[in-house]
Structures are given as C-alpha cells and as structure tokens.
Amino acid sequence: MINSLNDKTLQISHVSKRYGAGTTEVTAVHDVSLAVSPGEIVLIMGPSGSGKTTLLSMLGALLKPTQGTIQLNGTIISALAENRLPDIRLKQFGFIFQDFNLLSALTALENVAIVAELAGVKPSEARRKAASLLIELGLSERLNFLPEKLSGGEKQRVAIARALVNDPMLILADEPTANLDSKIGHEIMRLLRRIAQEQGRSVVIVSHDQRIKDIADRVLWLEDGEIKDTVITLAPRASAGVAIDPVCGMSVKPEQAIQIEWKGQIYSFCAQGCRNEFIEDPQKFNLEVS
Amino acid sequence: MISLAFHNLFQNKIRMLISVGGVALALLLILSLDAIFSGVEKRVTAYIDNSGADIWVSQDDVFNLHMASSSLPDSVARRVKTVQGVASVSPIMYLTNNVVAGDERNLAYIIGLPENAKFGIPWKVLVGRDLPEEGEVVMDRGVAENSGIGLGDDVEILGEEFEVVGLSEGTASLVNSVAFISQKDFETMRGSYDTISFLLVKVLEGESPEIVAEHIKARVRDVTVQTRVQFARQERQVVKDMSTDLITIMNLIGFLIGLAVMALTVYTSTLSRRREYGMLKGLGARNIDLYLTVLAQAILSVMLGFFFGLAITLLLTLVIPFIGINLTMVVSPASLIKVGAVSFLLAAISATIPIRQIAGLDPAMVFRRR
Q1: 8 Å CB contact of B364 and A57
Q2: Domain boundaries, chain A
C-alpha cells in the first residue's frame, strides 16, 4: 500500500526509544515505521512490556523518540521544541484512556468543555460544543453528573467526547474497552468505528481486546519493541455460532446479541446503538442473513 | 481553569474547612488587633474631640495629654483672650493618676475644671451633674460599674475622698478613663496655685482655628499652640508609637499562621490531584495553566477566609460592648486594605509551593496504569 506522505495523518519512520545508557540501556521500541491514513483504524497488540505504551506515548507527543521521526499532518513533531508540544497535543490529538481519567470535581459537561477552553475556545462556546458532543454520544441526561455518578460506559463516552472536542485528526486510545463489560465494550468500539468512518479521523488503538480486531483496518503485533507482524483485516464473516452485526460489521454471538426481526430475518447487533441505527434505515445496510 | 479551581476547592469539604477556617482565624487575629487599636486610637482622643475647644494651648514642647505634663502660668489665659479671633478661653488642670474604688485602681486622666467651665467638661452625662464642686467627682459609668460603685459613693484620688456626683459615657478607653474634679480640689491636692495645665480656646464664628493659632503663637511666647485636630493627631501618634511593635509582631504571627495553613492545604491538595494535573498536562495543558489553577484555588480559599475573618471581627465589634468589656473595636478602611494585601500575599506565596511538583509532572503518566 503505497501512498504519498501527504495522504497520511501520521507517519513514523525508524523510531526507537532507549532508556538508560551503557550496560543499563534498555530498548523499549526499536526501529518502528508506520503510516496511518485518514479514516483508518490501526490496532496495536502485543504482550505486556512489548513497548506498546512507549510507542503510544511517542505517537501522542508525550515522549520524544531517541531516534527516528514522527510526522503529523506534515509537521515533524519529534523535532519540535518541548514548549510547542502541549499545543499540538491539545489540538491535533484526542486521547482515550483505559481508566477514563476524568476530573473528579467536574461534571461530564465541564470535563469536556475544559479541554476546549484550554485550546482557547470561549467558555460559553466550549460548553456548547461539549453539550452537543455529549448529546450526540447519548449522554443528554448525564451532562451535569459528576464522574462518580456515571457508569463505566458513560465515563468512556465522556472521555470520547473530550477526545473529539478540539476536532483532532488523530485519536489515540489506550485499552479503551478494558474496564468495560462486553456490551458496553461493543458500544465503545462502535463509536470508534463511527469516528473513523464517518468523520474521517485516524484511530490508533493499543489493546489486548481481540474483539477490536473486528473494527480495525490493520492489526500490528508488537513484541520486544519491534513490529513482528502486520495483518490487514478483512470483514468478518458469519459462521457457525457467530453472527455479523450488519451495522458495524463486528462478529457477535447470537445468544448474547441484541436481536430484531425484519422482513422475516433475524438480525444480531453488538450494541443498542447499532440496533437503533439499523431501525432508522435498514435499507442502507448491506444485509446478510445472520 | 478558574472553574476547575472552584470545583477542586469545594469538592473536599473538610480540606476546604481547614483551609478557609485556618486563614479566617489568622486574618481574624490581624483584623481584630487592628480593630482594637483603631478603637483605642478613637477613644483615646475622645476627650480632646469632645472638648468643645478649637485650639489647645500647652506648655512649650508639650504636644499631647498621654504620659505628658503641662504647666502654664494663669496669665497666659488673659493674654490669649486678647488675641484677634479668640471668642473665649477656659483653663483645665490635668494629670494622670488612679481613681481608687475599694480594691479597684483605675488609671485616669484627672481633669480639674473651673466653676462654670464651658469647655473640657463631660459631654455626655447619663446620671447626675456634669460639673463637680469641691469634694465631688464625675467619672466614667463603665469604670464605676466595673468597680461596683454608683452615685453617692466615694472614690479616692491622690489620697483624697471624692463623692461621685455624675456618671459620664464615652470617657473610657482600653488605656484609661477620664475623671472630672473641681479646679480648687486639684490645686489644693497639688499645692500649686496660679498655674494651669492647658488652655482651651474657642475661636469666633467664621474664624479659622489654624489662623487664630498662628496669631496666638505670634502674641504669646513659650507656649505650644495646636488646633484640636493637630492635638488629637499627636495624641493618637503616641498610642501608635506605643503599639506599633506589638501590632507588627501580632501581624507577623497572624501572617505566618495563615501562610502555614495555606501552604499545607495547597500542597496537599495539589499532591492529591497529581494524577489529574498530569492527565491535563498530557492532554495539552501548559504548566502556566496549572499554576494559575492552583493560584486561583489559593486566592479563593483566602478570599473566603478573609470574609469569614471580617464577619467574625464585625460580630465582635457588635457583641463586645454588650458583655461589659471596656473596649471599642473599629474596623478601619486602612486595616481592610492591609489585611486584603496580606491575604493576597498569603495566596501568592502558598501557590508557589507546589510549582516544582507541577513542573515535574510527566505528561506521559497518563498512559501508565494506576
């Protein structure tokens, strides 16, 4: 897959990260190259200690590589001075974390709005944008709730709204489904898929969750700091005991799925959101019998 | 970020209570002490302010009453009376001594008044007469009550017995009270005749006290001539000079207590939110954004502490007169400005304590597990 550099949201070339020196030197990431296109979902998997978090931190301009370059929308961010990075992180990246990392003293609305305010948006406009995103993500009844009053799925949706509020081109997600049950996990994956497909944003996910493979365009296997394998994923197919959600394309177990009957056929969905989307206009989906 | 500071402050109620309460108590110490001394300054010049005189004439180089002694030949009264612009004059005798009632000894300005004195007399007498005759005294009501005496009782001044014939109001301060006896008794006790302590002067209507004071200075030698305002200012200055060191030390103690409380609460508050601040840094907040959040939180705490401290001080100014303490507290604008500045300083210094903590936060911590 050869694309020109300008087609890529993110391009990293021969990136390495080493800690310590001499006999104590440890190589966390070694000679990794990667390009992520707009609208593409890249899943990075690998065992614990394989360098996934270090790689993600470098991609998010939180850590400088020892070697190699990281280019974001044509700007080599790995060469930028430290004081320019906060602005890049704020406006060009959206971060989603396993622990949600919401500010405990702020409501859902304020948690999202504060990131827009940091980017220089006026408080009233920031609140309007935050409310609009949260409503779009199905949290209209939860705008003024503190994080402690939200469920895990709701917290993660707030975190997704926060990641989107400054309209970034790249979303970096660290184990976004790890602390969520299966249904909510599917819901979050569905959202990430929408973000990529409908909004054209690139999404890089680090996860152990095999289910995410269903929504990823590529799966990278990282081991000992090096990319050992790249798999371009194909749309999953229905097989014995497995159905395909016609909306998001994820494989689901029919006995655990939300099901509806339409025109004499049973359709299985990974989450309520997919079901609702389907009901709105079933014709627009390429239907397969589940 | 201001709203984050606000929410952070109010999220942990106990920490906020300790922080705001500690600052309020520290500022209360400064405010109330200032209020006490402002009250003393006001009350210490009550006799001068209410004397009815426009000009005070005293012995050369004597500028006030407190801890001073003045002696003028009574001929000064005749010479001053002839000066252009003078309407009338009235001498008073003065010394500082104790009014003894039983075991109680109350420090007082003892004022000797001539018969039919017009100036320098008690300005508000609640019961009895305002002008004492021989063997009589008019004294402060509060002092009399605290000593358990009333009209018709006897008190001792300079070893002589005096019958209380009047009780005056507003004639006591934290420092002393004012007791009025007759000029004849005063002269007899001191054994000095043909001398007076101060000459109180009333100027003609429409005349300027400053100009008439200049005329007196030009006509009468070896005397100090001051308008009532100047004389009162000198009196206050003496109290100020006596209390400045004490006030400075207490202000410093109040400041240090407030600083310790604020520094500790700001530090622990920042420490407990280390991960949240790190996350904000990870998302793109700059160090300055986080410093300003901490500073805003400190300023909010101190502002609340200031208002609580002020409220308690104002409450004390209202309550104290009703519980029998002979004390007037006055919250002056100067004191408010000073305590406001101290509060801001408290907030600013305490907010610098966690700067290293914030600067040292690694934004990459957002991807580390708890």
Answers
A1: yes
A2: 5-232, 243-284
> What top-level class would CATH report for the domain A5-232?
alpha beta
Tell me the C-alpha distance between A201 and A38, whole Å: 5
Question: What pTM value is reported for the model?
Answer: 0.70
Largest CA distance in chain A: 69
Q: Is the dihedral of CA A128, A134, A138, A139 positive or negative?
A: negative
CB spacing of A115 vs B276 below 8 angstroms: no
Tell me how far the alpha carbon of residue B51 is from its chain's centroid. Answer: 20
Taking only the tens place, the pLDDT of each residue in A78-115 is 999 888 999 999 999 999 888 888 999 999 999 999 99
Coil, strand or helix at B4 = helix
- Put simply, whether A120 touches B (Cβ < 8 Å) is no
Please state which CATH class domain A243-284 belongs to: mainly beta
Nearest C-alpha of chain A: how many angstroms from B15?
14
* pLDDT tens track for B272-305: 888 888 889 998 999 899 899 888 888 888 899 8
CB pair distance less than 8 Å for A115 and B284? yes
ipTM above threshold 0.85? no
A92 neighbors A62 (Cβ within 8 angstroms): no
Which helix (H) or strand (E) is B276 found in, with range? Answer: helix B274-283
Determine whether the interchain pair A101/B369 forms a contact, defined as Cβ–Cβ distance below 8 Å. no
Q: Which residues of B touch A89 (CB under 8 A)?
A: 282-284, 363
How far apart are alpha carbons A227 and A220 in whole angstroms?
7
